[in-house]
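User: What would this chain look like folded?
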Amino acid sequence: MVQRLLFLLPTLPLLFLATCGGENASPPRVEGKKVLMIIAPKNFRDEELLEPKGVLTQAGAVVEVASTSLDTAVGMLGAEVGVDLLVDSVRVADYDAVVFVGGMGASQYWESTKAHSIAQEASQTGKVLGAICIAPVTLANAGLLREKKATVWASEKERIEAKGAKYTGSSVQVDGRIITADGPKAAREFGQTILKALSQ
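Assistant: Here's the prediction, encoded as structure tokens.
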């Protein structure tokens, strides 16, 4: 009997984790939540759309894709993605989260007054607001990163700092309801962080 108990001892921490929300805990469910992901019609970064979208849809969220064209959007690595609506048609009130996807094409939104207004309304109304890769520049230019901790693709560090952001260099950075990430390697963690924020 004692031998059997000694045999079980090494497994007890694992059992504890499994029953107390450790690494084996299931991801949160967010049925009924709606997420808008904004991409460039060409040269968005494939992983930065597809990986967070996968994380969110698997958790029950409804994800819609907006762009400046209703034609099939093409990523930097060749992914072809259907577009649900035009950026000009976006109603922020319809969504629980708004996410700006990066890639070279995302620079078209840096100075876009429509993109700025979408981001500003999302922030002002307490939505989860995300941006990855070079897309945090759009949030910075919209005045939303002043005095906020944020990250971005390293080449654009000075752009967000010039608008008052506190650049951290983290893969994923959270400050309130704003979530930023630095590039494709962080795409899955970015999606998981958005999911966590949506579930709270």
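The first helix runs from residue 2 to 8. If you want, I can go into more detail on any region.
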